[in-house]
Write a structure and sequence with these properties.
This protein is an alpha/beta fold. The protein is built from 11 helices and 14 strands.
């Protein structure tokens, strides 16, 4: 069941078409990844969903009804550009933003204390925002986003400025919120985060939707003839030998795209004949990062062809 439907959203700024007839569906109880490089149109799409920008055309449907301003009360929105009042104290900031969403009282204070302790910021509750590090300000911004217990969470590049430990903590909380049946839209250009957290994804490139759907289905579609190999040797010779279309070297991990007439067993036979020590050999496996590179490269080629027509 789709709880949120984005239909043919389009937005131009002067001669620049930032979003070009984008459509996707957000299933109930999911983490939905809106992925793409910086400047692809992700933030503009989100701002139209949040009624910050009015679309030139298209609409967003929430549970069968076109969304209006009331959607903002149901949503927690973490914008890419952070917006905290630097002179305010942490505790006052949290209660202020909760009150803007109509939430006050002991339950909100209890939840605020819970998240301050979770993020190891309880001892800084009386500090001014400006006295916190960039990473700690980011954590406070995230708490203000979820403190009013929204039905929807829209997180635009939420991991910006966080160290690895706090990144893992934020991922843990996102999954905790998912278990509470929250609908979470995660916008990011970081493919490894999207792959670990998201059930469904939509890839945007140059304002256009490249694909969308369940992550497992998309990976299965792109993984055909793709082999993941863990070894120390250089496998570039596979292209010269006419076995592989491409060889992506990530250190000890290599991703091989076989030519259409090559069987995976033939590749394995060649590697054994060359005495290559294989620690891992996985057929039909591909990372979201590789899918992104392949899909956006094809889109760039098609755009170039269109420009020359």
């Amino acid at each position: 069941m789709y709880v949120l439907e984005v239909k043919e959203l389009t937005k131009s700024f002067g001669k620049i078409k930032a979003v070009d007839h984008i459509s996707f569906n957000v299933p109930e109880g999911s983490v939905f990844g809106l992925i793409g490089r910086n400047g692809a149109g992700k933030t503009t799409t989100i701002r139209m969903m949040m009624n910050i920008y009015l679309p030139d055309s298209g609409e967003v449907i929430l549970q069968g009804t076109k969304i209006g301003q009331e959607f903002k009360d149901k949503a927690g929105y973490l914008p890419e550009e952070r917006g905290l009042y630097k002179k305010m104290k942490v505790w006052d900031t949290l209660l202020y933003f909760a009150e803007l969403k109509g939430k006050t009282g002991r339950e909100v204070e209890k939840k605020a204390n819970y998240y301050l302790k979770k993020f190891e910021l309880y001892d800084r509750k009386n500090s001014k925002i400006e006295d916190l590090s960039k990473g700690n300000q980011q954590k406070i911004q995230f708490i203000t986003t979820i403190l009013h217990d929204p039905e929807f969470l829209i997180l635009d590049e939420p991991f910006s400025g966080l160290d690895p430990i706090n990144t893992d903590l934020l991922k843990e909380i996102i999954l905790e919120l998912k278990s509470q049946r929250k609908i979470i839209i995660l916008s990011t250009h970081l493919m490894d985060f999207a792959e670990r957290l998201c059930d469904h994804i939509a890839l945007i490139e140059r304002g256009r939707l490249i694909f969308e759907g369940p992550l497992n289905d998309i990976k299965a579609r792109f993984a055909k003839r793709n082999i993941q190999i863990s070894c120390e040797e250089d496998l570039a010779f596979l292209k010269e030998a006419g076995i592989a279309e491409s060889v992506v070297n990530s250190g000890n991990e290599k991703s091989i795209k076989l030519k259409s007439d090559v069987d995976p067993q033939e590749l394995l036979k060649v590697l054994i004949q060359r005495n290559i020590v294989i620690k891992k050999y996985a057929a039909d496996e591909i990372s979201l990062h590789e899918i992104f590179i392949e899909a956006t490269g094809e889109e760039k080629r098609l755009s170039a062809e269109e420009a020359n027509v």
